[in-house]
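In this section we walk through a basic example: taking a raw amino acid sequence and producing a predicted 3D structure, encoded as discrete structure tokens. The instruction is simple. Fold the sequence below.
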Amino acid sequence: MTRQRQVILQELRKVKSHPSVDEVYEMVRRLLPHISLGTVYRNLEVLSELGEIQKIEVCGKIKRFDGNIRDHYHLRCLNCHRIDDVPENIHFDFNTSLNSEIGYSITGHRLEFVGLCPECSEQQGSRLSQKIQSHLNCTSSRFVDKDVSRVFNI
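The resulting token sequence is shown next.
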């Protein structure tokens, strides 16, 4: 692994904030002042492809990256776009349920919870319905299937 890639990985694993490419670039530039934004972007993509980091893509928003590669879920604030990890003591067993119910051989899944973070909830309570409607209109990140709804009673 190149030195640049090692530094990017180390810096990303130090934070829990799920930074964007620009934020990772600013973190890495403190240690490698001559690194370019393009180099950071390409290395984040490579690290994601290698399974060293997670790439978090949300509808119409910038990509974010997570140094925690263990299976876990995210919460995204619809207002400020902050991303937090769901506490690790909360577990869902979707793969087993889907395997037994519909016969697919599930190799993984992505699940994102959306809502308002505590700070935005206090500030933006009245705008919640507008944000939710906007999110629901984004079809690229929304997946609804009657069989899945039936399996999980949603």
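Looking at the output, two observations stand out. Residues 37-49 form the longest helix (13 residues). The chain has two domains: 1-69, 70-144. In the next section we compare this with other chains.
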